[in-house]
Sequence to fold (755 residues):
Amino acid sequence: MDLVPALEEPLKKVLGPATAKVMAEHLGLHTVGDLLHHYPRRYEERGQLTHLADLPMDEHVTVVAQVADARLHSFASSRAPRGRGQRLEVTITDGHGRLQLVFFGNGVHKPHKELLPGTRAMFAGKVSVFNRRLQLAHPAYELLRGDSDETVETWAGALIPIYPATAKLESWKIGKALQTVLPSAQEAVDPLPASLREGRGLLPLPEALLKIHRPHTPADIEDARSRLKWDEAFVLQVALARRRHADAQLPAVARRPKPDGLLAAFDDRLPFTLTEGQRTVSGEIFRDLATEHPMHRLLQGEVGSGKTMVALRAMLAVVDAGGQAAMLAPTEVLAQQHHRSITEMMGELASWGLWREAPPQKGGGGRREGGMLGGAEDATKVVLLTGSMGAAARRQALLDLVTGEAGIVIGTHALIEDKVQFHDLGLVVVDEQHRFGVEQRDALRGKGKQPPHLLVMTATPIPRTVAMTVFGDLETSVLDQLPAGRSPIASHVVPAADKPHFLARAWERVREEVEKGHQAYVVCPRIGDEDDDPKAAGKKATGAGGEDADRRPPLAVLEVADQLAAGPLKGLRVEILHGRMQPDDKDAVMRRFAAGDTDVLVATTVIEVGVNVPNATAMVIMDADRFGVSQLHQLRGRVGRGSAPGLCLLVTDMPEASPARQRLAAVASTLDGFELSRIDLEQRREGDVLGQAQSGTRSSLRMLAVIDDEEVIAAAREEAAAVVAADPDLTGLPALRTALDALLDAEREQYLEKG
Fold:
């Protein structure tokens, strides 16, 4: 939050072009305000020495330690054949661990004079191993004697801040730069209303900035962090509260289902009872639909909790009220799957849209005149619209939309094109929210005569604080109850490198499931055709936690399918499915698999969401460590959808002690998607979680931790709602407006909607 022009002063004017260039390129810091908000990662006390045990390998570290001994050695080399080469070895200690520093050549003279036994200093460098001992080669260092004016001034106070740094800019150099700009903190305009700040006992912003960078006691640090977390949480929640307030002012057509209409007819035909959760969430949605401002609701739930059923009932309610409903899916496979499952659920109440492989069903075809259900039949046309449809089918689908013949349309981004027009669009359902950009969502919403109601579905359970932060402009409904008849899923890690016989047993289990009349998925991270560069794929598909280590390329669908068909699964009906196949071919493969004509489907993550084949009971995920926690949970949800129990086998070559194996063990240990989402969030950068990666900007959250600071976020949301309700334009709070403008340029503000 670069709050005032003084804090917007470019760093090159204050620190000089060389330092400013490094800060901009390596730390993303451009202004005085950016630097003031570059907070210390941790602090060292002068009276204590850093623990040298457990230093991370191959990482740039900053340590505070004391010199134990220093020895200068001479040696012969190609450059100094007469033994005139020099190497300085310095051992530093914290009283528990020891670390060796090494300097060569002309670089030995200065440290040989300065790093005498008993000297304390800060050292920064990259940790490596030589002769089975940890060492820093040619580390940068800063003496901590306090015997010169510069050092005393630079390191004033009892605590030494350690900043996020780079090899080109050590922590203490950042500290010196901050010493230069710190007086500007006094000019920071406080965005928090005085009543809020005083009521919660928070420091004024200038004082918080001074204490975070130059604390004298641990209490100073705690007070500063508390205040700076509130800044981030509150300004973000005000932005979201203003969006909710603005949306609430928009007009919308209230959509109330008829007591004896299409929704009632659909409910009467259901062969099962809705879960209590489905009824509760449907009630929340119907209440929103009945209001004269647009619904903005997020529907999240466990894999297989029945979100599609809830969304369909909402669409039927809108059709009942004379409107049309559109469902936006991220892929053609998923759009086709939704079209197929929705028409199957509706039965004779669905009149199929003209579509190449879908014959009209008997009893369909009830025509909607002027957007209303006409005739004696309670039926509406359900059409599919995707980019790969033939010209004739596409023309017919577009005609059905503009005349109102089609009450429900399911499609991909093809729905957003300019030529697509609706008779009366009343509801937009967005499936798998995180795959769509804000512009796409808004483009579809813009096709209504008035803003349509919006229901966003996500199959990835989201912790409450993330929902409040990422989807804070949406009301949230949660489905955490699985429908009756869903079977448990057993999950196991298969360590293929350590125990190859476990992998052989995995293929035996697949054969056993097929012999029982069931089917199986095998999932691979890569397609493997000639257009797929395995080296590039290896880089792109490194472990979700960042493990790389020159690994082999990820396993590919085409290769694995051939190996299985010729080897452990010989004699079974094996087919492939991936994103580069023609849409018709993909749909034909899914139809055969759904019909039971295929035993094993070897696929990429194209099956991750929406695919529903109750007879599929087993899944083997190859190179499972290449996938994220949430993605594994999504994939696993494709099995156990019928009466038979599910089995998910997570195959990996990663060693037992690796973070990747720990992630897989976490997935195998619980079916609770909300618990896994917390694990997933803790293992990823929060900037990614908050969507900033899409917008090409750094995360605005530097102090706030979304999981740990739940109480702050919840309290900030309440305070923000009250402030916006009393003063929507913030006319009485100019400093808060300034903070909002600085935090949210036009691009960032769009991404708050997290398309």
